[in-house]
Amino acid sequence: MLPVVDFTQIDLRPGTNCWSSACRNVRKAFEEHGCFIVVYDKASNELRNSVFSSMKELFDLPTETKLKNIYEGKPLKGYVGQHPKIPLHESMGIDEGTTLEGIQNFATKMWPNGNDNFCEYMLKYAKVVEELDGIVSKMIFESYGVVKQYEEYIESTSYLLRLLAHKAPQQVEPELGFVAHTDKSFTTILHQNHVNGLMVETKDGSWIDVDFSSPTSFVVMAGDALMAWSNDRIKSPNHKVMMNGNEKRYSLGLFAFYRGILQVPQELIDEEHPLQYKPFDHLALLNFGYSVNIKAFCGIV
After folding, report:
1. Spatial CB neighbours of 211, under 8 Å, sequence gap ≥ 6
2. How far apart are CA 71 and CA 105, in angstroms?
3. Which tens digits make up the pLDDT trace of 180-192?
4. pLDDT digits over 152-179, tens only?
5. 18 phi/psi in degrees, rounded to 5
6. Residue 161: strand, helix, or coil
7. What distance in Å separates the CA atoms of residue 148 and residue 138, rounded to the nearest whole number?
């Protein structure tokens, strides 16, 4: 099972004992598993229900409409679906997905007259998750003794909000919903409806089911960029989706990308952890899709 960090019952203010304890728990979870479940109750039941209702409305649109979700020169950000290897999977991306402008630009491609309700719900939801990502990221920087670098990082971070739908399998046995992969992001935060399907590979090579145990559960996952930045102290976990049962799974992923050059902080280089990565342009990493991993992109041979 993945570790669970509860953010609902503690005083999340830097400088408090609760904050310091949470920092240690977050770092330990990242270093041991590359991801963890966080309980965070800032999104109301009403908002979550409205978000998933809006997602059903979106994915019920004709395929030719959904294909309008294109970002020229930005792989991994547009529509994915109708693929014979992953027939259960559909997803769309909202670039600058924590801004009203980004969400409205997406909505006007899907609905000729826009969709005010969709924009309202998605923006409220995205702001909640953006806040959560800011907290987790600050904890990472602080726990490694480089909190002074946090403000520069977060001010240069942009977010991709991906909306995902996985159909129920046509057979009794579980069926692949999405292939095993690691994320290109610095951090990824995942949330879903009541239908599970996410699996994570552990360090010993076994696969575990991830149970989003409550509506307030989110999965926080390290991306390849965080693995490089941490000088391999944190490993980005391999993960996939396996679908079972007879219900459709709706999920959302907020992916954090740094606009600029990331490099390993000097504080994270020592005899036990010699430098493993050259400075790299995070957004340039996206141009290679899943065909090039972070070691090939900027690793030191």
Report:
1. 1, 196
2. 12
3. 999 999 999 999 9
4. 999 999 999 999 999 999 887 899 999 9
5. -65, -40
6. strand
7. 10
